[in-house]
Each structure stands twice: as structure tokens, then as C-alpha cells.
Amino acid sequence: MASHDKPLVHIIRATGYSLKGLKAALALEPAFRIEIALFMILSPLGIWLGNSGTERVLLIGCLMLVLIIELLNSALEAAVDRTGTEFNVLAGRAKDLGSAAVMVSHVNVIVVWGLVLLG
User: Catalytic residue positions?
Assistant: First the structure.
């Protein structure tokens, strides 16, 4: 992107890149497709079950966090895979850490939904 772009041009281009990334994630990442499906099921449920705006934000926000972390994990995996196919301890660790971040976000959903709905 040229440094002389006007702010609106920058926003339009950035939005295009973001949509391209979402399209790639939907096409190439099975885990992301599953998480999107769960988001589409659980979000309306969270709106219905939440007793206040704060509860609704918590229920839906933790689901969105899963999507964000999955996108970052997918980006990390793509970058690591780009560097080569031979085994590398650090590359393996990076992928494992990304996967762990996704898992922690799933646990976060369970904790938040449990505390909000049972609390």
C-alpha cells in the first residue's frame, strides 16, 4: 500500500484484505468453519439466555474471541508452513502454542457460559 493513500482508501483496501482472509479461512480451515457454525448457533442463544446487556456481551464476546484466536492460529500455521517442510523444533512449538491458545479460548467459553448461566 502506498504511504500517500488517503484514510478512506486505506480503510477500503484493509477491508478488502480482511474479507480475503475470512474467505480463505472459510475455504481452507475446517476448524474455523466448525467454530463459525457454533457461533451462529450459540450467539442467538446467548442473546436469548443473557439477562442483561453485560451478560449478552460476555456470552457472545467469548465466542468471538475463539474466532479471533483461530484466525491468528491459522495465520501462524500458514507462516510456519511457508518456511519449509522439514521438522523444526521451534516451528513445532509455535504450532503447538497456537493450538493451545485456541484450546484455552474454548475453555474460556465453557467457564464464561457456565458462570453466567449458572451464577
Answer: 70
